[in-house]
Amino acid sequence: MKIAILGGTGPQGKGLALRFALAGVDVALGSRDATRAAEIAETLNQQIGGAKGRISGFDNTGAVNAADELVILAVPYSAHNTTLEAIKGALSGKVLVDIVVPLKDGDPKAVDMPIEGSATEAAQVLLGEDIPVVGALHNVSATTLNKLDHAINCDILVCGNNLEAKNKVIDLIQRLDIKAYNVGPAVNARCVEAITPMLIRLNISKKVPFSHAGIKIWAPDH
User: Fold this and answer.
1) What sign does the dihedral 159-160-161-167 (CA atoms) show?
2) What pLDDT digit, counting tens, does each position of 106-154 carry?
3) CA distance 80 to 123
4) What confidence tens digit (pLDDT) does each residue in 41-59 have?
5) By C-alpha distance, which of 156, 134, 135 is closest to 144?
6) CA angle 168-43-170, nearest 5°?
7) What is d(CA 179, CA 67) in angstroms, rounded to the nearest whole number?
8) Measuring CA to CA, how many Å separate 80 from each of 98, 118, 147, 196?
9) Which residue from 130, 149, 197, 205 has the least number of CB within 10 angstroms?
10) Secondary structure in 3-state letters for the chain
């Protein structure tokens, strides 16, 4: 199995690439600069030694073409729409996993949602209904992802309008030995994406005795 991670040269993209490769998933790392992506991919491969999955570097369109079906978008929000416009033609027959959070410019403790309501919904409108968009992995810390000697400390909330696509994304995420939950249609991404600035606020607060917190879904004790 091979997935693509666009924006894979950033902290969250690199962390996800490492985690998936260790779980036996091949990763096509996408960037605007294919040479830089290839260099970072090689560095990541060296970091994880004999991992079952291998990381390779491409430009964004090349990474999409290399993926079997699932393409993770992990670019900064400022590059969200332009990246999607550039790769739209290559996404036919594939599923876009949008992990982007529209944080307010200059204030990561707040969101600045697009007119569509969320980044996930904006991606679905831009790509059209023939390309399923699934929102996921919004609330996991990049620092946590890159601490490979620690388990990921949160559950993952997954939303989108296509149930089959959501189930495929949930199956992929669970390969990282974490739980993922279907939390409904794409409109619910407005709530899920908005959790991230709340976590950022907590994580930088001097009154909170921890950082890099995540969300957990707890079952009742009865």
Assistant:
1) negative
2) 888 899 999 999 999 999 999 999 999 999 999 999 999 999 999 999 9
3) 8
4) 999 999 998 889 999 999 9
5) 156
6) 10
7) 23
8) 9, 12, 26, 17
9) 149
10) CEEEEECCCCHHHHHHHHHHHHCCCEEEEEECCHHHHHHHHHHHHHHCCCCCCCEEEEEHHHHHHHCCCEEEECCCHHHHHHHHHHHHHHCCCCEEEECCCCEECCEEEEECCCCCCCHHHHHHHHHCCCCCEEECCCCCCHHHHHCCCCCCCCCEEEEECCHHHHHHHHHHHHCCCCCEEECCCHHHHHHHHHHHHHHHHHHHCCCCCCCCCCCCCCCCCC
The backbone torsions φ and ψ at residue 208, rounded to the nearest 5 degrees and listed phi first, read -110, 125
151: how many CB neighbours lie within 10 A of its CB? 11
Residues whose CB is less than 8 angstroms from the CB of residue 47 and which lie 6 or more positions away in sequence, other chains included: 18
**0.85 exceeded by pTM:** yes
pLDDT of 206 over the 80 cut? no
The full length of the chain comes to 222
Amino acid at 193: E
